[in-house]
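Notes to self, Adenylyltransferase and sulfurtransferase MOCS3 homolog:
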Amino acid sequence: MEEEIKKLKDEIRQKDEEIMRLKALAETKNRVFDEVSCSKEGKLSPLSQSEISRYSRQLILPEIGVAGQIALKQTSTLIVGAGGLGCPVGIYLAAAGIGEIGIVDHDIVEVSNLHRQVAHTVDSVGEEKTKSLERAIKGINPRIKCHTYTLLLNSKNIEKIIESYDIIVDASDNVPTRYLLNDAAVLFNKHLISGSALRFEGQLTVYNYLDGPCYRCLFPKPPSANAVTNCSESGVMGVITGVIGCLQALEVIKIAIGCHPSYFKKMLLFDGFSGEFRVIKLRSKQENCTVCGKDPSIKKLIDYEEFCNRSATDKIINVSLLPESDRISCVKFKEVTENGSKFLLIDVRPTNEFKICSLPNSVNIPFDKLSHENSLFELKNLVEQFDCSCNYVICRRGNDSQRAVLALQNCMPKCIWRDIIGGLQAWHHEIDSTFPLY
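result:
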């Protein structure tokens, strides 16, 4: 009996979802039908000859047709992030004929962006990303209305920006902005297409669509700072951002023409290394959600950097874990290397990064292996062999080297350990500009 009741409830739920979907589809089709009817009466210009030529390959698709193309033309989309995800989103939405596109990003184009942020070129380096992406969009389709917002989006400036757009694309890939966009999407009744990419992996889902969950339904509290990494620190394969960005654009197009998005109440997990796509079913909107539930406690936007305890950028934040007495500048360390003093320099970067570039006479013992018995044995032998009054630790940016010094002070307290401030990046900027920067 209980199984039958459960089965009936599932069937009712599925029917309710289908009814909601059909209602949304009908509203879109009715709006487009009215526009097409008006065009026949001369009240609205139909698709021009150049538009028919431009969009001909998708116009002949039964799922698009004239009505769908007009719906795309009447849709506005805000892309938050003009990087690896935002570039393909912007280019493909412009190519498809989305009528109005807004671009938000606070950053400028760097050489290290070019392997994945395909709308930017060598000539764009040093330029605002929003302007560079706008130029790429106009190059694809000059008809598109494009608006740029070169700023760091926050709870104070988002309302004026978001209110005029139908669909929001989260291409930011940082936690505070993810919560900000989610809450804004719920409070201002917008659909949110969320994507992320890291290393060889990508994710995609659609939030705040019909009775589907919002981001807070799944993640009520932000993860700890130590549990989150980013592309600058862990790397990303450029193609992965392209795959996820293209799928984000496709979800926008489906919603714009009144079709059901593929990843409503689902999450796509893409493993680029194995080539596998997996889809996880997500639960429905949660009644106790703090922003979209029946009795929400969040009724206005908050300070999301404070809520998440981190900056709303994908830049790596420099930590300060050691007293000044346990640290040494690159300039001072250079003097050590030149005055004939004996020294032991441990490079705690991963081995693959050590192979990219390294300082002379440095020894590579990756940070995550420092606690291993074999590594400690090797390190103790090196300390005895070099017999230095002081030993030094370096990494890429000066964060892991500080953590390594703390660990080494605990396991080898009789030795003196010092961290080189700013790591190899500081060495590039302060000592040798020909030393590779990555």
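- Residues 31-45 have pLDDT under 50 and may be disordered.
- The chain is about 40% helix and 15% strand.
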